[in-house]
Design a protein that fits this description.
By secondary structure, the chain is mainly beta. Helix content is 4%, strand content 45%. It has a domain of 113 residues. It is built from one helix and 16 strands. The strands form four sheets. Strands 12, 13, 14, 15 and 16 form a five-stranded antiparallel beta sheet that branches. Strands 4-5-6-7 form a four-stranded antiparallel beta sheet. A four-stranded antiparallel beta sheet has the order 8-9-10-11, with no helix packed on it. The protein is globular and about 55 Å long. It comes from Inhella gelatinilytica. This is Lipoprotein. Keywords: Signal.
Length: 223
């Protein structure tokens, strides 16, 4: 089954958007290069991207649709390559001013939407996505754990107030450092926005935000 992106997306402006003028009907060079490097895991036939799978069927074909002249008539699939362990096919999906990413398990065909390029923990066990999107993409911080033949969601933050996150680095297997852009507090009284660094740390079976030690001073006036 093709992942139901249209049920999740709308039109509008967003970070990393693919606007009408930039979505290409033909696959770009990086897609074709990734297909070539996959040594048979993927193939491109015009608007059709076919992935080799073990189950439930030997192949999955994702087909571009629409001319991108209207919000509801546009989907583009672009092959990014395989995951480091070779278990997943990574596919960027673009529409009328929105974008996301699928990880498709090559053993089971299971599709997981991870929204953007994940950053793996040192062992590769955990994947973090800090996707800072102003509008129509999925904004927030998400962590998955790689378990056998599936990605298990372990953490999801979708900010209710204005906050855009970006991944700085994994500190260790249990801690990832993030940068947060949010409305200014008293620490930056003359600016609308401020950037701070926070840690997201695994404590038992949960992930919690903690303040770095030593604390990193906020950056004021960041846009």
């Amino acid at each position: 089954m093709i992942f139901p992106f249209r049920a999740l997306r709308g039109a509008g402006a967003l970070l990393l958007a693919c606007s009408v003028g930039t979505i290409q009907a033909a696959a770009p060079a990086d897609d074709l290069a990734a297909v070539t490097a996959s040594t048979g895991a993927a193939r491109r036939d015009g608007a059709h991207l076919t992935l080799s799978l073990k189950a439930p069927a030997p192949a999955l074909t994702l087909s571009d649709r629409g001319d991108c002249s209207t919000p509801d008539a546009c989907t583009r699939y672009r092959f990014k390559g395989l995951s480091p362990n070779g278990q997943y096919a990574r596919v960027d999906v673009h529409g009328y001013e929105w974008g996301s990413q699928l990880w498709i398990n090559r053993n089971t065909g299971r599709q997981t939407e991870v929204f953007a390029d994940p950053v793996a923990s040192p062992s590769g066990r955990y994947l973090v996505v800090a996707n800072g999107a102003d509008c129509c993409e999925e904004n927030g911080v998400f962590i998955w754990e790689q378990q056998e033949d599936r990605l298990v969601p372990r953490f999801a933050l979708r900010p209710k107030d204005y906050a855009l996150y970006a991944t700085v680095r994994w500190e260790d297997e249990q801690t990832v450092r993030l940068r947060r852009l949010a409305r200014s507090t008293a620490a930056c009284p003359h600016d609308d926005l401020m950037s701070t660094e926070v840690l997201l740390r695994r404590q038992g079976t949960t992930w919690r935000f903690v303040t770095p030690t030593p604390a990193v001073p906020p950056r004021c006036g960041v846009s």
